[in-house]
Design goal:
The structure is a homodimer of 253-residue chains.
Chain A (H helix, E strand, L loop, with lengths): L2 E2 H8 L3 H9 L7 E2 L5 E3 L1 H15 L4 H8 L3 H45 L7 H31 L3 H23 L7 H14 L7 H13 L1 H8 L5 H16 L1
Antiparallel strand pairs in A: 1-3, 2-3
Helix pairs in contact in A: 3-4, 7-8, 8-11, 9-10, 9-11
Chain A binds a DNA duplex (30 and 30 nucleotides) through helix 2.
Chain lengths: 253, 253
DNA sequence: GATAGAATATAACGTAACGTGAGGATCAAG
DNA sequence: CTTGATCCTCACGTTACGTTATATTCTATC
């Protein structure tokens, strides 16, 4: 049985150009050339081509494949093991790149909106007063008590303590944003671990009961400034953290 | 402050050719050209170059980088997220290749040595007799009893049962070889799970006590035919399986 | 001011593995 | 004999530069 170029392409899936190329570089010569110049391949050439394609699949360059095909099994094994190391390092490198991208996204989201909109949760006294009014209007007396409690506590804080809360909150929200990008669910253990930290952090402001913690999610959802704040970290952050907090409250409080 | 090409290469680590190239494709034009044609760069160009190099690090082609640099943060984030997906699929693909290589190595080791040296443990009656003589010489009466026991049992076996033992043993040794390549320790749970299967398999030949099982490792180590047999699977197999078996015996028997 | 050495320039080829035509034979079928 | 399929040989385009080759120009030293 002899195969024309076209037939071989159908059997192997490669293009005519590729066969020409392999002929040219001496990787796969046809069985013979007809008088008209046409290339004709034999059965063994088909098998050889499949070998070539296999090594190509594994990422070997054609020159390496040339050598590989003339090696015995022992040396092929050595080459394959070396290639494993190579692939391994590429995987490692790419994983690092993924991390770098995550950080960069956070950085972009952060610097973009944060600096030029200079919005920072809870540390702007004018805004603070707005929230308080909103809270009292919406939740009445209970909310007022929470605020009084919060003020009493934070009044004793120095700059370091404020910074600490701010930094921890910031790191926490950034980590949450990464998890959103990773398609983790609000109820997943990784997220819940962060929400636990969030709960502890918020506890430094008020005494958080289950109801109050769930109430916080409502405040977040209803007041546009909170949406803006959370959008800084991730467009889906506000819904995500709300769900995660409600789940946390139901399970643990 | 203005930088000549050389100065910029020192600051950024790229080659002069690269700067020429970036100039040519319009990715990074110098601040101005002097009358003699020399390129001079400004501070902002250095910063831009660093941006370019950063995206290049992440694996973006230069044309993409051109676009990226003219985008706002929002679109850059989208591009980065798309790139994450891309990197992820590459990682996945390469992991599959690693598996394929493992299988291929086993296949090569198998067909190469196994077929043309036609060595198969326990199924060649001439060799079998050699081992028996060796065992009796080395371990005396106890070994002889084991052999008698083994013969009694296997005498009742039909071809299917022999094939079953052979196939399971073969699969097991191949799996062990993969684990060696993965640098797993003989005492690791994955390996020990396989060794457990090995123990059960050997139990079909003799009643394996702790001492006998450990004794087997000595037989493996001392008789060159066993070394050859195990080498078929992996050059380090004999030491590896020996350690794993001794660990297994100490822990479980 | 001559000269050497460093820095600069442009231009062009090489790289890997083909894709994509251009332009021209050859073959089988109607 | 014409059409359409298949075949051939150039030869350029692709990516991101590395690597000469050849020619200027700047800077320092004698």
């Amino acid at each position: 049985m002899r195969y024309s170029v076209k037939q071989l392409t159908k059997l192997s899936g490669v293009s005519v150009r590729t066969l020409h190329w392999y002929d040219q570089i001496g990787l796969l010569k046809p069985d013979f050339y007809a008088v008209n110049g046409y290339r004709y391949y034999a059965e063994k050439d088909l098998l050889l081509l499949q070998q070539i394609l296999f090594f190509k699949e594994l990422g070997f360059p054609l020159k390496e494949i040339q050598k590989l095909l003339s090696m015995d099994g022992f040396d092929q094994i050595k080459a394959l093991q070396a290639h494993k190391v190579f692939l391994g390092s590429e995987i490692e490198r790419k994983n690092k790149l993924l991390e770098t991208i995550d950080k960069t996204i956070l950085h972009l989201r952060g610097t973009e909106k944060m600096t030029d909109k200079e919005l920072y949760y809870g540390f702007d006294s004018d805004r603070q007063k707005e929230y308080e009014q909103y809270l009292v209007k919406s939740y009445g007396h209970e909310a007022e008590q929470l605020l009084v409690e919060s003020k009493k506590r934070t009044a004793k804080w120095d700059k370091d303590e404020w910074d600490d809360v701010k930094n921890k909150g910031d790191a926490l929200h950034k980590d949450l944003a990464v998890m959103i990008d990773q398609d983790l669910k609000p109820s997943s253990p990784e997220v819940q671990k962060l929400i636990h930290a969030h709960y502890e952090l918020q506890n430094r402001f008020y005494d958080l009961t289950k109801e109050v913690y769930i109430g916080l999610t409502k405040l977040y959802a209803e007041h546009p400034d909170f949406r803006k704040f959370f959008d800084v970290y991730h467009p889906d952050m506000i819904e995500f953290i709300g769900e995660a907090m409600r789940f946390y409250a139901e399970q643990n409080l």
